[in-house]
Amino acid sequence: MIIIATVQADFVTSAKGKCLLRVNGYTYHKIFASNGGLKVRWRCSTHWARGCRAHVHTIMNEIIKITDQHDHPPPFTSSKSAWS
Ligand SMILES: [Zn+2]
Description:
single chain, mainly beta, disordered C terminus, binds zinc ion
């Protein structure tokens, strides 16, 4: 099933130098790639810490499927500062 949704997505680099996908304020880790790396699966970056099941599939850096049912608020992102 493909969920058509208006999403705001971009690619960011974590403090550890890993490529992350950020969608609607949530960040996702790259966990799986197939078809020579064209198709990529991303899982919510809190999956291991909190068990969040949200994930995204991309092909050629375009989102083809998104399941963004998080059980937590978005993590802090560098584009917004809570202290400014
Ligand atoms: Zn999540």
